[in-house]
Amino acid sequence: MKSISLIQFLIEERRAGRINAELSLLIEVVARACKRIAVATNKGALGGVLGEAGTGNIQGEAQKKLDVISNEILLEANAWGGQLAACASEEMEDPQPIPDMYPKGNHLLLFDPLDGSSNIDVNISVGTIFSILRCPDGVTEPKAEHFLQPGTTQLGAGYVVYGPATVLVLTFGHGTHEFTLDREVGSFILSRRDIRIPEETGEFAINMSNQRHWEAPMQRYIGELLAGKDGPRGRDFNMRWVASMVADVHRIITRGGVFFYPLDAKIKSKGGKLRLMYEANPMAMIIEQAGGAATTGRERIMGIQPSGLHQRVPVFLGSKKEVEVATHYHVEADAAV
Ligand code: AFP
Fold this sequence. Notes:
It is found in: Cytoplasm. Residues 197-330 form the Fructose-1-6-bisphosphatase class 1 C-terminal domain. 31% of the residues lie in helices and 24% in strands. With 337 residues, the chain is an alpha+beta fold. The strands form four sheets. The protein has an eight-stranded mixed beta sheet, sandwiched between helices. Strands 12-11-13-17-15 form a five-stranded mixed beta sheet, sandwiched between helices. A hairpin with a 4-residue loop joins strand 8 and strand 9 (176-182). The radius of gyration is 19 Å and the shape is globular. 1,6-di-O-phosphono-alpha-D-fructofuranose (AFP) binds at residues 115-118, 207, 243-245, 273-274.
């Protein structure tokens, strides 16, 4: 089969009228920046990139050196291109405007530059997650409130997983597609077009150590999976938990499955663990475009009107049937109160 590079794919999509030139260029710039992040990440201990940076981020989390390096790579790559009005990042409290010496564009880029960074020092896959919004008309100096758009308004979303292979998964509202980095050529090559996630699955991902803190409907749902074929579900289930959302989601994109980061008593006051704008929303778009579902356990993630740039939400995403069963248990429990 003739290999199709990311650039060829984007040109095809532009000719088909499914993407415009500015968005296409932006995706290429982000993909190129992620190749540089892959090089930095793959150096491991030899690159002096492991360990703590000695700084903290807006989330109050200690930053890894690669968190900072990845953030800088994405900011630098996107400064001069002319497609963006501003960037927002998990690593920065406020949006970063495009420097005045460069032309501005009509897009807003949000990213988690290195998701799963607590796994870096133990050489487990990590990734970059990004979301693309339109900058409101007439806004030349975007502030945080200009980013607060529901996930349904995303023009595009993607992630790159830095694993045994470096893989980009991308959507701009016309299906979800996968590109694998050909390191010898330095190009992302189309490896799966129009991915479909099976509606049924026998595999779930959750951090079981939080079980005693979960809400009752989550206890019920996971309890039924653990009961296996002798329980109400009548089948056995397998469990995985990488603790890198990008790696867990990529497994689901590849073979189906369902991922949960539910509310629990420890994080209830924060609203959840994962961030809406640059983790939950982009992953929700990717999953929905692949035929899956993504909710908070009570509502569709992409329907949420954001209230803050670093807002956190519970995340249930993946194979549609399991997301629907778990969500139904929560809605039913709320209605019974
Ligand atoms: P880090 O980026 O701090 O490693 O957090 C990763 C993450 O945001 C997401 O990628 C994982 O799914 C989730 O946190 C893992 O959370 P636990 O460490 O509580 O299992």
